[in-house]
Amino acid sequence: MKREFDNFDEFAKDYRKTHDKSVELSGADSDYFSEYKIMELLKFEKADNSMKILDFGCGDGNSSKYIRKYFVNSEINGIDVSEQSIDEANKKKIENTIFQSFNGEKIPFEDNQFDIVFTSMVFHHIEHNLHENILNEIRRVLKPGGRFYNFEHNPNNPLTRKVVRECPFDEDAVLLKPSYHKVITTKSGLNIKNINFTLFLPRHKLFKPLLGLEKFLTWCPIGAQYYIRSIK
Ligand SMILES: C[S@@+](CC[C@H](N)C(=O)[O-])C[C@H]1O[C@@H](n2cnc3c(N)ncnc32)[C@H](O)[C@@H]1O
Predict the structure, then answer these.
(1) Is the CB of 80 inside a 6 Å radius of any atom of ligand 1?
(2) Dist. CA 159 → ligand 1 center (Å)
(3) Which of 44, 131, 150, 223 has the most CB atoms around it within 10 Å of its CB?
(4) Within 10 A of 18 (CB to CB), how many other CB atoms are there?
(5) pLDDT one-digit tens code per residue, 53-72
(6) Is 73 helix (H, G, I), strand (E, B) or coil?
(7) Ligand 1 centre from 167 Cα, in Å?
(8) pTM for the whole thing?
(9) Which of 58, 81, 169 best tests ligand 1's pocket when mutated (most atoms within 8 Å of CB)?
(10) Which residues are paired to 149 by β-bridges?
(11) Per-residue exposure over 145-180, b if at least 16 CB sit within 10 Å of its own CB, e if not
(12) Each residue of 22-44: pLDDT tens digit?
């Protein structure tokens, strides 16, 4: 049977160790990659606003850990299809955060609930013909004016393709071209405000003085990852 979405149960326990190994050539660890994405949100959002935030495809809750750290007054929900990942997330005991598993299709919340939906590295684990339904669901649970941040690997970057090829949990991943990602987001009725490319340089000490220059490159479609920011 063709997969609808990848099951991460078998990777849940050692997810961070596996990811650390997969990204080690970059000079940074898995936590670094979780934290930088939440810091991107801070370019657009006020950290101390009281908001409801959904971490869609939250896995073991590592992004939620950083959402908690920076969005101090937020109420966080994390959902994922992998029950074992949710068990790992719950072990983190993140304050004011509820993790739950769901069927991967119908988001288990009422309409117009969330100020922000955040998702990281999830859509390439879902069959492309299901993307539109999931985007419609995300749009449904966002409040009018709510923001959606969808972080993805950039298939235009050869190093990203190599990392994905060699990462055990990305075996079945099908990366989203930015042009495709743009079309499906617009089709779902969300208004795209930004498409930002990120992570142009390795994170080794030697490159540290240059990292500040990356903010001038967000337009350049060769960053290792990118995100689309859209508004309901
Ligand atoms: C590469 S992991 C990323 C986890 C987390 N977002 C992070 O960045 O650390 C991909 C996650 O997507 C989840 N996933 C796959 N299909 C899904 C679906 N239809 N709905 C929600 N989550 C899904 C997997 O179970 C897995 O936890």
Answers:
(1) yes
(2) 22
(3) 150
(4) 15
(5) 999 999 999 999 999 999 99
(6) coil
(7) 15
(8) 0.96
(9) 81
(10) 118, 229
(11) ebbbbbbbbbbbbeebeebbeebebbeebebbebee
(12) 999 899 999 999 999 999 999 99
